[in-house]
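Q: May I have one protein plus its fold?
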Amino acid sequence: MSRQKPLFRSERRLPGRQRGMVLILIVFIVALVTILAAGLSTKQSLDIRRATNIVEQNQARSYALGGEFFARNMLRNDWNKDNASKQFIDHEEDPKDEPWGGNAVQLPIDLNVGIEGQLDDLMGRINLNALVNNQTEPPRVDKNMLDRLSRLLNNLGGVTLPPELVPEHFVDWIDADQESTNFRGAEDDIYLLKPDPYRTGDTYFTDVSELWLIEGMTAEVYQALSRVVCVLPANVRQVNVNTASPTVLVALIPGLTLQQAQEVVEERKKQKGFKTAADFLGLPQLAALRGTPTQDIVVASNYFEATIRAIVDGRSYRMVSTLYRDSAGKVSVLRRDFGKKQDITKPVVIIK
């Protein structure tokens, strides 16, 4: 029997084409599955890493809060000790007498896990918010505080003060009106003309970092000024002379020279802190001076700053807390800042 010829030549190649299409389809499916698997693996790795980061961050935050609790407990114990002796004194001259003042503390937890922190006395600085009383109409400027700030700016020690940076700029940032203070201030009419315009705060400072916004501020002045000023409630004018630096003492006491202030600090070290305000006022460096604000001189403090750094597997988590200790020794947290990169500056003592 003779073979019947196909009607079309393409009918003999059809099975081969089908096999080719199947092969291409298989290759495509394998490639697609490989891509999907790689994508899922990458996503899974990112999810695991993200979850690890969240866990470590939460763990570091918990450690930082634990460090804050430790700082609060130190202040509470210090008050209990002072209350027992009926002599309330806060200084940084003797770590044995005032363990919170002279040193920073490090608490190792594991090989790559630990907490370190320090306490600083905010009442050893000049409170910027005391410049203005916004509760009156119009806002009332405290001339004595304005003079105090002027002396502070003029005695920052080796810092070149720009001529356009004047104390009135700080007043106008705080006061609730738009009237330029002593025709030297800076209100919205100055700040709105800047390349990146903004308005004055017209309220009290909430953080020292706001100083960057003051007209005439430079990095050099900011670095020096941020160590000797603070932002506390507006009614806090007192300065703890046991923790004030020579620069702050010069600002506090009219007529006191920087050399005399350094002599006062040396005497303070010898006495391991002044026991009373009268001990401070009786110093020979102050005998001939007039206008000393005796009502603003204290030897104990209510406001402190806790700088905490928690380390978890090589990661650092920083927190700066403002603490208030009342007359009964209760320590409260006024604010927490998780964005500051503030360093530990005191000698570190390791607690085992």
Observations:
- The CA atoms of residues 131 and 238 lie 13 Å apart.
- The longest helix spans residues 14-85.
- Residues 9-50 form one domain.
- The mean pLDDT is 89.
